[in-house]
Amino acid sequence: MGSKDLKLLDVFSYESLVHAVAGAMGSVTAMTVFFPLDTARLRLQVDEKRKAKSTPAILSEIIKEEGLLAPYRGWFPVICSLCCSNFVYFYCFHSLKATWLQGQRSTPGRDLVIGIAAGVVNVLVTTPLWVVNTRLKLQGAKFRNEDIQPTHYRGIMDAFAQIMQQEGVGALWNGTFPSLLLVLNPAVQFMIYEGLKRHLLRGVNRELSSVEVFLIGAIAKAIATTITYPLQTVQSVLRFGQHGRPADQSKLLNSLRSVMYLLINRVRKWGMLGLFKGLEAKLLQTVLTAALMFLLYEKIASTTFRVMGVKRTVTSH
Protein backbone atom coordinates (compact mmCIF):
# COMPACT_ATOMS: atom_id res chain seq x y z
CA MET A 1 0.00 0.00 0.00
CA GLY A 2 1.45 3.38 -1.03
CA SER A 3 2.02 6.44 1.16
CA LYS A 4 -0.96 8.21 -0.43
CA ASP A 5 -3.23 5.32 0.54
CA LEU A 6 -1.90 5.39 4.10
CA LYS A 7 -2.55 9.12 4.39
CA LEU A 8 -6.06 8.66 3.03
CA LEU A 9 -6.66 5.98 5.67
CA ASP A 10 -5.47 8.40 8.36
CA VAL A 11 -8.00 11.02 7.19
CA PHE A 12 -10.94 8.58 6.91
CA SER A 13 -10.09 6.45 9.94
CA TYR A 14 -12.33 4.86 12.56
CA GLU A 15 -10.20 6.50 15.25
CA SER A 16 -10.83 10.02 13.90
CA LEU A 17 -14.55 9.26 13.78
CA VAL A 18 -14.54 8.15 17.43
CA HIS A 19 -12.71 11.33 18.47
CA ALA A 20 -15.21 13.44 16.51
CA VAL A 21 -18.30 11.76 17.98
CA ALA A 22 -16.84 11.84 21.51
CA GLY A 23 -15.98 15.54 21.16
CA ALA A 24 -19.44 16.39 19.82
CA MET A 25 -21.24 14.44 22.56
CA GLY A 26 -19.05 15.89 25.29
CA SER A 27 -19.53 19.47 24.11
CA VAL A 28 -23.32 19.14 23.72
CA THR A 29 -23.70 17.74 27.24
CA ALA A 30 -21.39 20.34 28.80
CA MET A 31 -23.04 23.26 26.98
CA THR A 32 -26.50 22.12 28.06
CA VAL A 33 -25.42 22.11 31.71
CA PHE A 34 -23.89 25.61 31.58
CA PHE A 35 -26.09 27.20 28.88
CA PRO A 36 -27.56 29.99 31.09
CA LEU A 37 -24.05 31.34 31.65
CA ASP A 38 -23.62 31.69 27.88
CA THR A 39 -26.93 33.56 27.69
CA ALA A 40 -25.67 36.09 30.25
CA ARG A 41 -22.40 36.51 28.34
CA LEU A 42 -24.12 37.10 25.00
CA ARG A 43 -26.46 39.75 26.42
CA LEU A 44 -23.53 41.69 27.87
CA GLN A 45 -21.63 41.53 24.58
CA VAL A 46 -24.49 42.55 22.26
CA ASP A 47 -26.64 44.90 24.39
CA GLU A 48 -24.35 47.91 24.79
CA LYS A 49 -26.68 49.73 27.21
CA ARG A 50 -26.96 46.85 29.65
CA LYS A 51 -24.76 47.58 32.64
CA ALA A 52 -22.05 45.07 33.40
CA LYS A 53 -23.03 43.18 36.54
CA SER A 54 -22.24 39.82 38.09
CA THR A 55 -23.48 36.78 36.19
CA PRO A 56 -26.12 35.84 38.83
CA ALA A 57 -27.48 39.42 38.71
CA ILE A 58 -27.76 39.36 34.90
CA LEU A 59 -29.52 35.99 34.95
CA SER A 60 -31.87 37.23 37.68
CA GLU A 61 -32.79 40.24 35.51
CA ILE A 62 -33.41 38.04 32.45
CA ILE A 63 -35.64 35.61 34.39
CA LYS A 64 -37.57 38.48 36.03
CA GLU A 65 -38.19 40.32 32.74
CA GLU A 66 -38.57 37.40 30.31
CA GLY A 67 -39.56 34.32 32.28
CA LEU A 68 -37.98 31.28 33.92
CA LEU A 69 -36.99 29.56 30.66
CA ALA A 70 -35.44 32.68 29.09
CA PRO A 71 -31.84 31.67 30.00
CA TYR A 72 -32.36 28.60 27.77
CA ARG A 73 -33.77 30.56 24.81
CA GLY A 74 -32.13 29.37 21.58
CA TRP A 75 -30.82 26.17 23.17
CA PHE A 76 -31.72 23.87 20.25
CA PRO A 77 -30.03 25.84 17.42
CA VAL A 78 -26.95 26.41 19.60
CA ILE A 79 -26.70 22.70 20.40
CA CYS A 80 -27.12 21.79 16.70
CA SER A 81 -24.39 24.26 15.73
CA LEU A 82 -22.09 23.16 18.53
CA CYS A 83 -22.54 19.47 17.70
CA CYS A 84 -21.67 20.06 14.02
CA SER A 85 -18.85 22.46 14.85
CA ASN A 86 -17.10 20.22 17.37
CA PHE A 87 -17.57 17.15 15.20
CA VAL A 88 -15.82 18.95 12.31
CA TYR A 89 -13.08 20.36 14.58
CA PHE A 90 -12.24 17.14 16.43
CA TYR A 91 -12.36 15.12 13.20
CA CYS A 92 -10.06 17.53 11.35
CA PHE A 93 -7.69 17.93 14.33
CA HIS A 94 -7.14 14.21 14.86
CA SER A 95 -7.10 13.20 11.19
CA LEU A 96 -4.60 15.97 10.34
CA LYS A 97 -2.54 14.99 13.36
CA ALA A 98 -2.46 11.32 12.34
CA THR A 99 -1.57 12.25 8.75
CA TRP A 100 1.26 14.61 9.73
CA LEU A 101 2.80 12.80 12.70
CA GLN A 102 2.61 9.19 11.39
CA GLY A 103 3.12 7.87 14.93
CA GLN A 104 5.84 10.39 15.87
CA ARG A 105 5.85 12.45 19.06
CA SER A 106 3.88 15.68 18.84
CA THR A 107 5.09 19.14 19.95
CA PRO A 108 3.29 22.34 21.05
CA GLY A 109 4.18 23.97 17.72
CA ARG A 110 2.70 21.12 15.71
CA ASP A 111 -0.42 21.06 17.90
CA LEU A 112 -0.88 24.81 17.30
CA VAL A 113 -0.51 24.53 13.50
CA ILE A 114 -2.89 21.55 13.33
CA GLY A 115 -5.37 23.35 15.59
CA ILE A 116 -5.33 26.44 13.36
CA ALA A 117 -5.86 24.35 10.21
CA ALA A 118 -8.76 22.47 11.81
CA GLY A 119 -10.21 25.77 12.99
CA VAL A 120 -10.16 27.34 9.54
CA VAL A 121 -12.04 24.37 8.04
CA ASN A 122 -14.52 24.49 10.92
CA VAL A 123 -15.18 28.24 10.54
CA LEU A 124 -15.80 28.09 6.79
CA VAL A 125 -18.16 25.11 7.12
CA THR A 126 -20.18 26.06 10.23
CA THR A 127 -20.36 29.91 10.38
CA PRO A 128 -23.90 30.02 8.82
CA LEU A 129 -25.15 27.81 11.66
CA TRP A 130 -23.64 30.15 14.26
CA VAL A 131 -25.10 33.26 12.61
CA VAL A 132 -28.58 31.71 12.71
CA ASN A 133 -28.27 30.48 16.28
CA THR A 134 -27.09 33.92 17.48
CA ARG A 135 -30.18 35.52 15.92
CA LEU A 136 -32.54 32.89 17.38
CA LYS A 137 -30.95 33.07 20.81
CA LEU A 138 -31.48 36.84 21.00
CA GLN A 139 -34.99 36.81 19.48
CA GLY A 140 -37.55 38.07 21.98
CA ALA A 141 -34.91 39.42 24.37
CA LYS A 142 -35.63 42.70 26.17
CA PHE A 143 -32.74 44.96 25.19
CA ARG A 144 -31.66 48.19 26.90
CA ASN A 145 -30.53 49.48 23.48
CA GLU A 146 -33.61 50.86 21.65
CA ASP A 147 -31.79 50.87 18.29
CA ILE A 148 -31.93 47.07 18.09
CA GLN A 149 -34.73 45.92 15.79
CA PRO A 150 -36.79 42.84 16.78
CA THR A 151 -36.66 39.78 14.54
CA HIS A 152 -39.36 37.22 13.81
CA TYR A 153 -37.91 33.83 12.86
CA ARG A 154 -40.07 30.70 13.15
CA GLY A 155 -37.14 28.32 13.43
CA ILE A 156 -33.75 27.40 12.01
CA MET A 157 -34.83 26.94 8.38
CA ASP A 158 -37.00 30.07 8.42
CA ALA A 159 -34.08 32.07 9.82
CA PHE A 160 -31.85 30.80 6.99
CA ALA A 161 -34.50 31.74 4.42
CA GLN A 162 -35.19 35.23 5.83
CA ILE A 163 -31.51 36.13 6.18
CA MET A 164 -30.75 35.07 2.58
CA GLN A 165 -33.84 36.85 1.24
CA GLN A 166 -33.45 40.11 3.17
CA GLU A 167 -29.68 40.41 3.60
CA GLY A 168 -28.18 38.16 0.94
CA VAL A 169 -26.34 34.84 1.13
CA GLY A 170 -23.17 36.60 2.27
CA ALA A 171 -24.89 37.60 5.53
CA LEU A 172 -24.74 33.95 6.63
CA TRP A 173 -20.99 34.39 6.88
CA ASN A 174 -21.17 37.58 9.00
CA GLY A 175 -18.34 37.57 11.50
CA THR A 176 -16.20 35.18 9.44
CA PHE A 177 -13.13 37.44 9.59
CA PRO A 178 -12.98 37.63 13.41
CA SER A 179 -13.94 33.94 13.48
CA LEU A 180 -10.88 33.12 11.35
CA LEU A 181 -8.74 35.14 13.75
CA LEU A 182 -10.44 33.31 16.61
CA VAL A 183 -9.25 29.92 15.38
CA LEU A 184 -6.37 30.82 17.69
CA ASN A 185 -8.75 30.20 20.61
CA PRO A 186 -9.27 26.45 20.15
CA ALA A 187 -5.77 26.12 18.67
CA VAL A 188 -4.16 27.64 21.79
CA GLN A 189 -6.59 25.65 23.95
CA PHE A 190 -5.64 22.34 22.32
CA MET A 191 -1.93 23.23 22.32
CA ILE A 192 -1.98 23.89 26.09
CA TYR A 193 -4.24 20.90 26.79
CA GLU A 194 -2.08 18.47 24.79
CA GLY A 195 1.11 19.97 26.28
CA LEU A 196 -0.10 19.58 29.86
CA LYS A 197 -1.36 16.10 29.02
CA ARG A 198 2.08 15.09 27.65
CA HIS A 199 3.75 16.52 30.77
CA LEU A 200 1.51 14.56 33.16
CA LEU A 201 1.90 11.31 31.22
CA ARG A 202 5.63 11.59 30.58
CA GLY A 203 7.35 8.33 31.45
CA VAL A 204 4.20 6.57 32.68
CA ASN A 205 1.71 4.29 30.97
CA ARG A 206 -1.69 5.29 32.36
CA GLU A 207 -4.80 7.31 31.61
CA LEU A 208 -5.37 10.73 33.16
CA SER A 209 -7.71 10.83 36.14
CA SER A 210 -11.02 12.69 35.89
CA VAL A 211 -9.71 15.48 38.14
CA GLU A 212 -6.56 15.90 36.01
CA VAL A 213 -8.55 16.08 32.75
CA PHE A 214 -11.00 18.58 34.27
CA LEU A 215 -8.23 20.83 35.62
CA ILE A 216 -6.03 20.93 32.52
CA GLY A 217 -9.12 21.48 30.34
CA ALA A 218 -10.12 24.42 32.54
CA ILE A 219 -6.62 25.95 32.54
CA ALA A 220 -6.25 25.63 28.76
CA LYS A 221 -9.63 27.25 28.06
CA ALA A 222 -9.14 30.08 30.59
CA ILE A 223 -5.89 31.17 28.96
CA ALA A 224 -7.23 30.89 25.39
CA THR A 225 -10.45 32.76 26.21
CA THR A 226 -8.78 35.68 28.00
CA ILE A 227 -6.33 36.22 25.12
CA THR A 228 -9.03 36.28 22.42
CA TYR A 229 -12.05 37.76 24.25
CA PRO A 230 -12.16 41.19 22.50
CA LEU A 231 -12.44 39.46 19.12
CA GLN A 232 -15.15 37.16 20.49
CA THR A 233 -17.19 40.23 21.42
CA VAL A 234 -16.83 41.66 17.90
CA GLN A 235 -17.75 38.26 16.46
CA SER A 236 -21.02 38.18 18.47
CA VAL A 237 -21.95 41.73 17.45
CA LEU A 238 -21.30 41.03 13.74
CA ARG A 239 -23.29 37.79 13.83
CA PHE A 240 -26.22 39.60 15.40
CA GLY A 241 -26.14 41.91 12.36
CA GLN A 242 -27.27 45.14 14.06
CA HIS A 243 -24.00 46.88 14.85
CA GLY A 244 -24.00 50.63 14.31
CA ARG A 245 -21.87 52.26 11.64
CA PRO A 246 -20.62 55.86 11.25
CA ALA A 247 -22.93 57.88 8.99
CA ASP A 248 -20.13 58.83 6.61
CA GLN A 249 -19.13 55.26 5.87
CA SER A 250 -20.49 52.91 3.25
CA LYS A 251 -23.02 50.35 4.40
CA LEU A 252 -20.96 47.56 2.85
CA LEU A 253 -17.91 47.77 5.10
CA ASN A 254 -15.29 45.19 4.47
CA SER A 255 -14.57 42.75 7.27
CA LEU A 256 -11.36 44.36 8.49
CA ARG A 257 -12.91 47.84 8.73
CA SER A 258 -15.92 46.39 10.56
CA VAL A 259 -13.71 44.72 13.15
CA MET A 260 -11.52 47.79 13.65
CA TYR A 261 -14.54 50.10 13.86
CA LEU A 262 -16.24 47.98 16.52
CA LEU A 263 -13.06 47.60 18.59
CA ILE A 264 -12.21 51.33 18.46
CA ASN A 265 -15.83 52.37 19.10
CA ARG A 266 -15.99 50.14 22.17
CA VAL A 267 -12.72 51.55 23.57
CA ARG A 268 -13.95 55.13 23.01
CA LYS A 269 -17.20 54.48 24.87
CA TRP A 270 -15.97 52.44 27.84
CA GLY A 271 -12.17 52.40 27.73
CA MET A 272 -10.01 49.31 27.41
CA LEU A 273 -12.18 47.47 29.95
CA GLY A 274 -15.06 47.77 27.47
CA LEU A 275 -13.31 45.16 25.32
CA PHE A 276 -13.70 42.71 28.18
CA LYS A 277 -17.33 43.42 29.07
CA GLY A 278 -18.94 40.08 29.95
CA LEU A 279 -15.58 38.32 30.44
CA GLU A 280 -16.57 37.10 33.92
CA ALA A 281 -19.67 35.38 32.52
CA LYS A 282 -17.69 34.07 29.54
CA LEU A 283 -14.88 32.66 31.69
CA LEU A 284 -17.32 31.08 34.12
CA GLN A 285 -19.27 29.49 31.28
CA THR A 286 -16.50 28.57 28.87
CA VAL A 287 -14.00 27.26 31.44
CA LEU A 288 -16.55 25.02 33.15
CA THR A 289 -18.00 23.92 29.80
CA ALA A 290 -14.58 23.15 28.29
CA ALA A 291 -13.40 21.30 31.39
CA LEU A 292 -16.52 19.13 31.46
CA MET A 293 -16.37 18.67 27.68
CA PHE A 294 -12.75 17.40 27.79
CA LEU A 295 -13.62 15.10 30.70
CA LEU A 296 -16.58 13.58 28.85
CA TYR A 297 -14.64 13.45 25.56
CA GLU A 298 -11.74 11.51 27.12
CA LYS A 299 -14.07 9.10 28.90
CA ILE A 300 -16.31 8.49 25.86
CA ALA A 301 -13.35 7.99 23.50
CA SER A 302 -11.51 5.73 25.94
CA THR A 303 -14.60 3.61 26.65
CA THR A 304 -15.44 3.31 22.93
CA PHE A 305 -11.92 2.16 22.02
CA ARG A 306 -11.96 -0.34 24.90
CA VAL A 307 -15.40 -1.77 24.03
CA MET A 308 -14.60 -2.06 20.33
CA GLY A 309 -11.23 -3.63 21.09
CA VAL A 310 -9.37 -0.98 19.09
CA LYS A 311 -5.97 0.15 20.32
CA ARG A 312 -5.88 3.93 20.68
CA THR A 313 -2.99 5.57 18.86
CA VAL A 314 -1.05 7.74 21.30
CA THR A 315 0.77 10.46 19.34
CA SER A 316 0.46 13.18 21.94
CA HIS A 317 2.39 11.61 24.82
UniProtKB/TrEMBL annotation:
PROSITE patterns: SOLCAR. It comes from the Eukaryota. Gene3D superfamilies: Mitochondrial carrier domain. This is Peroxisomal membrane protein PMP34. GO terms for molecular function: ADP transmembrane transporter activity; AMP transmembrane transporter activity; ATP transmembrane transporter activity; coenzyme A transmembrane transporter activity; FAD transmembrane transporter activity; FMN transmembrane transporter activity; NAD transmembrane transporter activity. Belongs to the mitochondrial carrier (TC 2.A.29) family. It comes from Phoxinus phoxinus. Solcar repeats lie at residues 14-99, 106-199, 208-303. The chain crosses the membrane at residues 12-35, 74-92, 112-132, 171-192.
